[in-house]
Specification:
By secondary structure, this protein is an alpha+beta fold. The strands form 6 sheets. The chain has a 4-stranded mixed sheet, with no helix packed on it. A two-stranded antiparallel sheet has the order 1-2. Strands 3-11 form a two-stranded antiparallel ribbon.
């Protein structure tokens, strides 16, 4: 207990800095002289929630370069083609989880249990114990979904024993079930400032626990269907997160600390991914001219136009349906959330336009060149008023001659509200509850609403978040396909043809032509025979709605289901970290073409060889980025 008391002193300092408690007078105790009975559980909760927001050092590496890239919310290399950085992971696993967030929340559990046993608990201590258990379950889910096997009973003074992912998931589901049942929502909590998510509104914590249980139960759908169904149905009968004011979210604050926004580093561009582009283009049938300002109207292209063809400068060795083309304007129709999440290049009058980095003019530079092997200009392109997204991977000599494909000012990028620490980071929102219920209904599980009602409620919740609800009615009835061959309307499950005819212009000669653009074949889902069933619709909508704050979930859905469609990395040159993908199979889709997990940090092996060996044995494969987790699709 002495170690807990000593640690509490540090938590008090942290809580005072972050939560506005700037004077120790407000605590009325010397933090270095607290006794076991005086330790405040809410300090541990505050420290765990605050720390796990990820300071800029951790966030850039984990949230941005790992999750948002693997989850296809942004263009990027690295992990998307099998890469890995041990230093990034060591910081996240060591100082973040084992040295900080999980340590703090475990201490909160221990202190609350001791106070209750000793009879020194306050009226709300039992509720704080349950809140600590609920947030611990979330933190453990984040850790296991990144690495695989992890310890359940850590922080006991000895090297912990690793448990299988199945054991970890069963433990988390049990914890959420039990903790939710033991919360008394009628009890008033301590100072709200020590709970940055819900201000100790215990009814909302109970709903969060139940909705989290839905998420974790559904994660088991492909590997442990009976357990998934039983846990999901039980949780679905309880109060859930269904309204915007119940969203689990934490306000971001400017500076350099744990509450600084996770997307604030100016040198990170947050470029639109080819996945998001293909999923949103044409989806919902809402015309661009009804969404953009008058100054952008002239840039809107016809519905059957794919762009300029530049086969010598844009990769064609990928299954991206737009490979080889550059759209010299805006798509005729697009999901109305797209222009809100990513700002059109050159749209300088948009109040949400972000000009990072502040030390150069790259965000406002839209004119770039395509050059020949000696550097001579072949074509000058202006990206203002265009909508393009490069596929990741190796573009070879084509990339070397292409100065526009991933240039800061030439690609749609996240807006200012996500970059300047004035927003709220979302951990669980009502649309996720609804999309989970819709998926359960499609599976034939017992849930409190129909699949269509839940699906459309999820769309409505997401549209409300982006303030585009005026388009929702027409959008939900649309039968138009996106570039992946999926439509919005719940009742429209007709499959698109194998191809659709589109017009193009040869970028080198200006000659017009027509081409049959293939709808991509996604062999990860029903062997590529289905593009427009209801589950594909649900996960497509869920992917768009979870952007930009829940990339770990978009990555997890793809690992679990192979949905939505993710393009293969380009292989103009072989990918060193993804050798299974090559010039002969890049039109097919395989599990080995996508990252599956993070490798354990080298520090784990050096500090706990027995634990590391146990973890790898339970993982069932090599400690590699391409080794699937227990609940994910297998090669």
């Amino acid at each position: 207990m002495k170690s807990i008391i000593k640690y509490t002193a540090l938590l008090v300092l942290s809580a005072g800095f972050i939560s506005g408690c700037s004077k120790f007078d407000e605590i009325n105790e010397d933090p270095y002289l607290v006794t076991e009975d005086q330790v405040q559980v809410e300090y541990f909760i505050n420290n765990a929630i605050t720390g796990s927001q990820q300071d800029p050092h951790i966030a850039e590496r984990i949230f941005v370069l790992y999750w948002k890239t693997a989850g296809r919310q942004q263009f990027g290399g690295g992990i998307s083609s099998g890469g890995y950085n041990d230093g990034w992971t060591s910081d996240y696993y060591g100082s973040g989880y084992m040295g900080g967030w999980l340590n703090a929340i475990n201490s909160g559990v221990q202190v609350a249990e001791k106070q209750i046993a000793a009879g020194t608990a306050k009226s709300y201590t039992n509720n704080l114990l349950q809140v600590s258990r609920i947030y611990r379950a979330y933190l453990m889910s984040e850790l296991t979904d990144n690495f695989g096997p992890i310890p359940i009973n850590a922080f006991q003074g000895t090297n912990p024993e690793f448990k299988s992912e199945k054991d970890v998931y069963y433990y988390m589901l049990d914890e959420l079930k039990d903790a939710s049942s033991k919360i008394d929502p009628s009890i008033a909590g301590p100072a709200a400032k020590f709970d940055l998510a819900y201000g100790f509104n215990f009814g909302k914590w109970q709903k969060y626990a139940n909705s989290m249980r839905l998420r974790l139960a559904m994660r088991l759908s492909e590997v442990d269907a009976a357990k998934a169904k039983a846990e999901f149905e039980a949780a679905a009968s309880q109060p859930l997160i269904t309204s915007a004011d119940e969203t689990f979210q934490v306000a971001e604050l400017d500076g350099w600390h744990s509450l600084t926004g996770v997307m604030t580093r100016e040198w990170n561009a947050f470029l639109l991914s080819s996945t998001m582009r293909n999923l949103t283009m044409g989806l919902g049938g809402i015309e661009s001219k009804d969404q953009v300002g008058d100054e952008m109207d002239a840039h809107v292209k016809p519905a059957d136009y794919i762009g300029l063809r530049f086969t010598d400068h844009f990769t064609t060795m990928t299954n991206d349906p737009s490979a080889g083309y550059w759209l010299d304007g805006l798509p005729n129709k697009i999901d109305p959330r797209a222009y809100k999440a990513y700002i059109i290049p050159g749209d300088f009058g948009n109040t949400d336009f972000n000009a990072y980095p502040s030390w150069d003019n790259s965000a406002r530079t839209t004119v770039r060149n395509l050059v020949d092997a000696s550097g001579g200009v072949v074509k000058t392109l202006d990206a203002a008023g265009t909508w393009n997204a490069p596929v990741n991977g190796d573009w070879g000599t084509k990339g070397a001659k292409n100065q526009i494909r991933s240039y800061n000012g030439a690609i749609p990028r996240h807006g200012k509200k996500f970059r300047n620490s004035t927003n709220k980071r979302i951990f669980f929102a009502p649309w996720e509850t609804y999309f989970l219920l819709a998926e359960a209904a499609v599976r034939g599980w017992t849930v409190p609403m129909s699949g269509q009602a839940a699906y459309e409620a999820g769309i409505d919740a997401s549209f409300a978040y982006w303030d585009v609800s005026g388009f929702a009615s027409a959008y939900k009835s649309s039968t138009e396909y996106n570039m992946a061959g999926t439509s919005v309307s719940w009742g429209h499950t007709a499959e698109p043809g194998a191809t659709h005819t589109m017009n193009f212009i040869n970028g080198y000669t200006n000659a017009a032509g027509a081409v049959e653009i293939e709808y991509p074949v996604n062999q990860l889902y029903k062997n590529g025979t289905v593009r427009n069933d209801q589950l594909t619709k649900i996960i497509t909508q869920k992917f768009i709605a979870q952007t930009p704050y829940l990339p770990l979930e978009t990555w997890s859905d793809h690992r679990r289901l192979g949905l939505p469609f993710f393009e293969n990395p380009a292989v103009e040159n072989p990918l060193v970290n993804m050798p299974a993908l090559n010039s002969s199979n890049y039109k097919t889709v395989q599990v080995k073409f996508f990252p599956q997990r993070l490798k354990y940090p080298s520090s784990l092996q050096s500090s706990n060889q027995a634990g590391y060996d146990q973890a790898i044995s339970l993982l069932g494969g090599e400690d590699g980025v391409l080794t699937p987790l227990w609940w994910a699709k297998k090669p």
